Amino acid sequence: MSLLQALQAHTLPEKYRNMSTAELERKVHSIKEEMGERLFIPCHHYQKDEVFQFADVTGDSLKLAQLSQANRKAEYIAFCGVHFMAETADILTAENQQVFLPDMRAGCSMADMADIYQTERAWDKLQSLFGDTLLPLTYVNSTAAIKAFVGKHGGATVTSSNAEQMVQWAFSQKERILFLPDQHLGRNTAYNLGVRLEEMAIWDPIENKLVFDGPLETAKVILWKGHCSVHENFTVANVQQVRKNYPNMKIIVHPECSREVVELADLAGSTNYIIQAIEQAEPDSSWAIGTEMNLVNRIIQQHPDKQIISLNPHMCPCLTMNRIDLPHLAWCLDSIKQGERRNIIQVDQQTTGFATQALERMLALSV
Fold first, then answer.
1. Per mean pLDDT, which range of 285-294, 298-307, 311-320 is the poorest?
2. Rounded to whole angstroms, how far apart are CA atoms 251 and 234?
3. Domains in the chain, ordered, with CATH?
4. pLDDT band of 365, cuts 50, 70, 90
């Protein structure tokens, strides 16, 4: 297939662009009803409402992959999230199940900040610096290839919910850890466990070098220089402005935010932690939330008894997650119904094997 043909195969046909919202919704409803249990639509919390309304289940990336794995009746899984999430679903589901991503452009800038070539190159250099004292951990927000690399080298995946538990486990295995690809989650987690900031180094994959001022033997955590493009946009100035304008407002943020922002917030935790904290909060309480805007807006709608704002008033939704829209969902389901196998996410057998090891090490410790 030529590059042009490949692009055309993943380009939304004009007819779906020209359909009204009502027509698109009727099509999705109709296909869901016709296919029944053969079709499964997991939907991430950050999705647009126009897509979120059709979810069979909702949650964070790992939960959705696990629910896909548990649903043995579904032949077709239309994963409404981003590429690495659909990869994890494909890794965990059975061979007779197919995973589809409605728009193949729905990637993740954080996951893209650590590719396998950079990681293998970094590992060789870090081994020469530290010897066999390193264990790699990767946030589940990473590509299948990175998960496989970590699995192959004895490491595990982590989520924002179990990161502290997994980092503690890693330190029981080796003297040091390499944390991919989000430096902020790695830094916040290690700091909460008592690792001093001066004991944390940064690996710069672009410059292919270690950034660290102290003696090498004092480095306990090597943080990959990656970040979430959404959560890094919450700043100390945002916190200061909320404190000034709303002195009694609580600030809750995701641990993908910078150390400085997490330090100044009242609470920090995973997406699920944030949702539950607001659900359990007293009526009339007030909150500034530092996470993705689609989710914040949904929380605001669901809790009219509370005053809720975004920590950053100029925050936009996750742009890559937002690529999954109603026209692409309708096209994806139409293609599945008609037997056209496009936008399939398929991880090769070797990668699946090692990535599964990384995931299973985490899941075994998270029971």
1. 311-320
2. 11
3. 3-107+321-350 (3.40.50.10800), 111-228 (3.40.50.10800), 231-310 (3.40.50.10800)
4. confident
